[in-house]
Amino acid sequence: MIFNEQDVFNLVMSGHDITKMNKMIVDPPLDLETAALILGDIPTFIDYNEVAKDKLSVEEWDHRNQSEWFMPEEYKQLDIAKYVLDLCKTDVELQRVGEELLLYQERNLFDLLRYLKYLVDVMRENRLIWGVGRGSSLASYVLYLLGIHRVDSIYFDLDPQEFLR
Fold first, then answer.
1. Is residue 71 a contact partner of residue 115, using CB atoms and an 8 Å limit?
2. Which alpha helices (DSSP H) does 88-155 contain, by range?
C-alpha cells in the first residue's frame, strides 16, 4: 500500500504504532523533519521514488506486490476450486462455476479468490457489514458463492465475461 502524509498522520492519531511496521511507501516521501513531527520516532520509510529506481514495468511491480498475500497459511493452502465447486447445488451452477474458474485460472487469480474467502470469513467472524455488491463483480457467480456480493448472476443471466474484461 502507498500512503500519503495524511494517511500516516491518521494511523498515528488512531493509535497505530507505525514505528514497528517494517516498510511503508509514502508518496510523496515525508521529509525527516515532517516525519519527526508526526511520529517522534522515524520508521523505515520506502520512498516511492526509490521503488521507481528499480525500473520495474507495471507488470513486474504488480507481480512483486501480488506474490505475497497476508493471510493465514490455511487459506494459502486452500484448494479454492474444490471449495467453490462443493458449494454448487445444481448442474447449472457447476457448469457456470467451472467456466468462471477456468477464466480465473487463466488470469492467475486463485490467490485473490483465496484472499477474498479469508476476507469474508474475517468480516463474518467480526460481525462487520459490507455492501451487497456493485459494478462488474456482480457478473461473477464465484464471488457470489464466496459471499463477496449478494446478486445471483445465474438468476439474472449476467455474463461472466463482463467481470473479467
1. yes
2. 91-106, 110-125, 141-146
Angstrom distance (rounded) from CA 110 to CA 4: 30
Q: Are 160 and 141 in contact (CB under 8 A)?
A: yes
Between CA 138 and CA 160 the distance in angstroms is 9
Q: Give the model confidence (pLDDT) of 92-101 as tens digits.
A: 999 999 999 9
Q: Rounded to whole angstroms, how far apart are CA atoms 96 and 153? A: 10
Residue 103, C-alpha cell as written in the block:
477464466
Q: Which pTM does this prediction carry? A: 0.64
| Per-residue pLDDT tens over the stretch 8-57 | 767 777 777 766 665 666 666 665 556 655 555 544 444 445 555 566 77
Q: In the chain, what are the domain boundaries?
A: 2-66, 73-162
- C-alpha grid cell for residue 106? 487463466
* C-beta neighbour count of 115 within 10 angstroms: 18
CA–CA distance, 94 with 13 (Å, rounded to integer): 48
Q: Where are the alpha helices (DSSP H) in the chain?
A: 5-13, 32-39, 48-53, 58-66, 73-76, 80-86, 91-106, 110-125, 141-146
Point out which residues pair with 45 in neighbouring strands.
24
